[in-house]
Amino acid sequence: MARASTTSDAFNAVAEPRRREILVYLAGGEQPVGAIVAALAMEQPSVSKHLRVLHKVGLVGVRRCGRQKLYQTNAAALRPLHEWTGFFERYWQHQLLRVKERAEAKVAGSAFPKSNKTHGGERNV
Question: Which of 4, 22, 79, 98 would staple 8 via disulfide (CB 3.0–4.6 Å)?
Answer without folding.
Answer: 4
